[in-house]
Amino acid sequence: MNFIKRAGLSVKARKGKSLLQLIVFTVICVFVLSGLSIQTAAEKSADLARQSLGGEVTLQMDVESMMERQSSEQSGSENGGRVRFASEPIPADSASALAEMSQVKGYNLLSSSTATADDFEPIENESTESVVRQTDEDASEMPEGGMGGGGGGFADADVTLQGVLYTDAASAFLNEEAVLTEGRHLTEADAGQSVAVIEATLAEENDLTVGDAITISSTGDEVVTKELEIVGIYETSSTGDAQGMNFAAMNPYNQIYVPYTLASTYKGETNEGMVDSAIYYLNDPEEIDSFIEEAKATSDLDFEVFKLDANDAAYQQMIGPIENVASFSKNIVYLVTIAGAIILGLIVMLSIRERKYEMGVLLALGERKTKLISQFVVEIVIVAVLALGISAVAGNAVANQFGEQLLSQEVAQSAESAVNPQSFGGGPGGMRGGMPGAQSAEQSVEAIDELAVDVSAQDLGWLAGIGLLIAVLSALLPSLSILRMQPKNILSKQD
Amino acid sequence: MDALLEFKSVSYWYNQNNSKQQILNKISAQFNKGAFYTITGPSGSGKTTFLALASALDKPREGAVLYEGKDIQAIGMTRFRNKYVSIVFQSYNLLPYMTALQNVVTAMEITGSKQTDKKQYALGMLEKVGISPEQAKQKVLTLSGGQQQRVSIARALSCESDLIAADEPTGNLDEDTAKEIVDLLRDLAHNENKCIIVVTHDQGIARSSDVTVQLSKGSIKVIKREQERELAAQT
């Protein structure tokens, strides 16, 4: 144990050099600790974000692939001409089967259609009438099945039937854009029933209440007319959009939630037992990829026609900056560890060169070379332990400051890039938001802009491990030169 | 009487510019306990090499150096330095960041001294060579050259080896201090039954030793000073 005592004496005696090593080591440790604790904090925040957002996957027709196929089919045919888009409904049974998978905590089936109100007055938009008159003339030119897939002209419709399996899992209700004020939600048990949940303004204007009935007819050639019992009334905070204001059916007050089976009936016989899309709510967004993979492997659906889309934009938007910060911190840990070991190694190497004489004396006294190497390792470990102590005290403040700085930069950067698309007319509330049938649960979320960086015992454990590894490597590698040393050569040069 | 240390037909040479520079040529010599030996010779005669071989800092190219009849290479060079020999250098070779006392205690710890109170024993050794307890607690660099050499002798003594090899131990000292150091070494040989081998240029020191080994052109001449002194007394 003599070499340990010698190491202590040496560290104490070489105050200047020990202080230099201590400063370098402390800087390394503070950076490593900051990196580690920021990573831990980022992981925690990402976990919280995941828990609060959940994961969402939409099963829908692969429009792009369908368009490509139809385009190539039609260009191959003799008549050629314009590509005509035909939508492909999804068998409800197949969609429901996917909900049995372990990753799924809930799901919804969606099928929307437009219809006309028979015995009540839909809420009229100011511009609706003129548009209706104008579109009446053009109605024959509109493509069949377009805009919600109703059998008839879209312009004739004055209400939209939002067919769902569960209303409480519909995007408007999830976003709290719609809130049930009376009655009950639609559930799986309502499938096949003629029931409806209507908007409060529509109910008020028509003196309708829960338990009353309304009659709605389809707009297609084969008219379907059904009497629906009102089982619930909701209030919406949606104001629709400019495009939607041209059509009564797109008015948010004229959105009537019905079982998906009923909405499909209004689309015509070929759509019975079919849905437009399905949304699966997963336990964890991290399971999105495994869910999609497993679904493709087990489902009877043709994934040339349909696709599973991960709606993780909100999650990505929320954790994007924090993930960048975590990744940056990780790189810092690697970089500082390697650079630190090299810098300290060089300092120790210089120190060994300066201390050749001392080693010659010790070797002449019969000291073993391994003990000389151990002495250098212990010396740097003493410095490392002091540096670890200082870092443990100062690390929290530095890590917090560092983390905040990094995160605010990332948040500012991501906000900047998020603003750009909106200036071109995109973003939430655009065309997509008001389209009937487009019920994606798109949420407007803010990126995480606060990091609760707290140096944990685990971080300190990692720091101790990394710090000691740096110490041992930086002392051990240059010390290997001692193995070649002969005391006679050292001392004769000294003399 | 069996020799403590024996050079048995030892040769040593350097290879320089593709030529062999012979330093020692088949030298044989014996060194016993209780005697004070000096190694003399002109510069480049191989005195320091001789001492390096005796103290296991180097190996002979041919022949063997035996300690109590055993080849020191078989004992192990590091082990031999650790257990059987103590070296005193011209430039003292003390550890500068330690006190005189710490230097001695460190050497005792390295050599595995069995003394239970090493500090007290080291203080005793230092006192024996003329270093006071106050001086013992000073950093060695604050001591004079003579005092530092005394500390290095105390360090050699505290390791309790029978063989002490000293390379020009008085080379950096003034005449009076040098005489004190030589007297000290001679006392150690005669009173402590140590085998002291001192490399020196100084003919006065050589004359005061028991045996002088004169090196010249690779060969040796052994002069027994006792016989010389007896002859001188008779004449």
Give the gist of this structure.
The complex is a heterodimer of chains A (495) and B (235). Chain A has 495 residues and is an alpha+beta fold.
Could you characterize what this model shows?
The complex is a heterodimer of chains A (495) and B (235). Helix content of chain A is 51%, strand content 15%. The radius of gyration of chain A is 35 Å and the shape is elongated. Chain A has 495 residues and is α+β, with helices and mostly antiparallel strands. Chain A starts with a helix and ends with a helix. Chain A has two domains: 228 residues, no CATH class; 242 residues, no CATH class. In chain A, helix 10 runs parallel beside helix 14, helix 11 packs across helix 15 and helix 12 packs across helix 14. Chain B has one domain: P-loop containing nucleotide triphosphate hydrolases (Rossmann fold). In chain B, the strands form two sheets. Chain B has a six-stranded mixed β-sheet, with helices on both faces. A four-stranded antiparallel β-sheet of chain B has the order 2-1-4-5. Chain B has 235 residues and is an alpha/beta fold. Helices cover 40% and strands 27% of the residues of chain B. The chains are: A alpha+beta (495), B alpha/beta (235). At the A-B interface, helix 1, helix 11 and helix 15 of A face helix 3 and helix 4 of B.
List the helices and strands and how they pair.
The complex is a heterodimer of chains A (495) and B (235).
Chain A: H1 2-13, H2 15-53, E1 55-61, H3 63-76, E2 90-91, H4 92-98, E3 104-117, H5 128-138, E4 159-164, H6 171-174, E5 178-183, E6 195-199, H7 200-205, E7 213-218, E8 225-236, E9 255-259, H8 260-267, E10 274-275, E11 277-282, H9 288-298, E12 306-310, H10 313-354, H11 356-364, H12 369-423, H13 431-434, H14 457-479, H15 487-494
Parallel strand pairs in A: 4-9, 6-8
Antiparallel strand pairs in A: 1-11, 1-12, 2-10, 3-4, 3-7, 3-11, 5-8, 7-8
Helix pairs in contact in A: 1-12, 2-10, 2-12, 2-14, 10-12, 10-14, 11-15, 12-14
Chain B: E1 5-16, E2 19-31, E3 36-40, H1 47-54, E4 62-67, E5 70-71, H2 72-75, H3 77-83, E6 85-88, H4 100-110, H5 118-128, H6 133-136, H7 145-158, E7 163-167, H8 175-192, E8 195-199, H9 203-208, E9 211-216, E10 219-224, H10 225-234
Parallel strand pairs in B: 3-8, 3-9, 6-7, 7-8
Antiparallel strand pairs in B: 1-2, 1-4, 4-5, 9-10
